[in-house]
Design goal:
Blueprint lengths: L2 H33 L5 H22 L9 H27 L2 H8 L2 H12 L6 H18 L9 H21 L6 H23 L6 H27 L2 H4 L6 H13 L5 H26 L1
Length: 295
Amino acid sequence: MTAAATATDDNLRGALFMSLSMMGYTLNDAFLKIASADLPLLQIIFLRGLIATAFVVALAARKGALRYRPARHDTRLILIRAVAELGGAVCFLTAVFNMPIANANAILQSVPLAVTLGAAFFLGERVGPNRYAAILVGFVGVLVIVRPGSEGFTAFSLWAIAAVIFITIRDLCTRRLSHAVPGMSVIAVTSILVTASAGLGSIAQGWAPFGAVHVALLFGSASFLIVGYLFSVSSMRIGEIGFVQPFRYTLMIWAILVGLFVFDEWPDAWTLIGVAIVIATGLYTLHRERRAARV
């Protein structure tokens, strides 16, 4: 087999893994949305976190990542990242629990645009006028999805927008971390802090009784969350980043299918138009970033 054929096979496998990763994240949201009918938000995050954290910590320990002691600069970034992770989870799940799952995920597709803009303003990364224009058009697409002031507007869309802000902060902190910091160490510490914070918050929020069905739902959620993470990591290691990254947008396909077949939800025409605008500008931004990286 030639090198070109091998690279093509790796890219196709990477694209498949990225698509499966997005499926895992979407099904994770679906299980949590079902559980939210009986359980409070912070209790859900805490119980799912216990399951997911056990796996993540075990994997980090196996890789020796837990022995790493970060510098003060990195410690501060990891703590801010954990706070942003919790804020993003609370805001996004609040949106998912109260509006169609596809609509909430549609708004979340603007994260790459927000990260690019944030990197330009706060990290000094170079962004040309074409990418600024694409970001502006992408945010117009978000407004088309949200439609403030219209009959179809729901205030829970603002929770999804808040989630975008928190996730952007998280990703910018990740970019600022030293290259020496093991990725599994960051993930394990974040998972522990988020789970512990949700546990403390759930005490104030109050607990609801739960049974075997709820445990099964949360275990399913945690399992698909882990599937999403593992396939995401594998996809980035196998294929070329520029080829694999656009397949993150398959999340919308999974979200629409889950919304239709599980929750009997279907996004309206304006939402689909907004999604198309956001994804198109996101793909253009990725393309421009690839070209800039080659220069």
